[in-house]
Amino acid sequence: MVVGIGAGDPEHLTLQAAAAIGRAGVFFEIDKGIADLAALRATLLARHARPDHRVVTAPEVPRERDPADYPAEVAAWQAARARAYAAMITEQLPAGAVGAFLVWGDPALYDGTLRLLQGVADRTDPPLRVVSIPGISSVQALAAAHGLILNRVGEPVLVTTGRRLAERGMPPDVPDVVVMLDGRTAFADLPDTDLDIYWGAYLGTPRQLLVAGDLRAVADEIVATRAAARAEAGWIMDTYLLRRRGAAEPAE
Questions:
Q1: Looking at the domain assignment, is residue 250 inside a domain?
Q2: pTM for this prediction
């Protein structure tokens, strides 16, 4: 099973996810070296897992964050991750047992675990059955924290990455853009003067940070806040919504 465990608050766990954790006997983890994340996983297992559960951990696969050939680097990293998953499952999951990966947010949104496990499952004999349990994503947590409705009436919402935003800018035909995985703070370089930003980091955790306002007015504040928080914690996960002002909503 691939179980979405939410953006950071233990209360984000759905009843379905809690029941799934209770069915699993073995939990597989990649150690990212982040104590806060490990502590949250441990809290969830202490609350919901069987007393006889086991945790199998593999070290994180190193990767270059700003390579010359980004697609090739990601493909190589994913292949190495898949090999690590296959080794853990083959060596540590008894026949007929239920194993689980606990993933942040929702398994269907910017998380590659399902894709990699399906590749592993296709090569096992008998084939593994991979089940996805949805979770509360950072996108949902961001909207709730700011009291937002992500879409305007009859309008689309685009979910993209910081790398894509840096390369292509704010789409002229999409009034609302959610940006994830933006280690470059691409929003700070946008030339647009009609954007509001709703930013959040460590959503749902005691470290949660929120900033909102005219992008041009608060961009430097977000960059500084982000840098200071990352230096203090040693890690950061943040998400934001860019909203174009003046986009009229059609009558219902």
A1: no
A2: 0.91
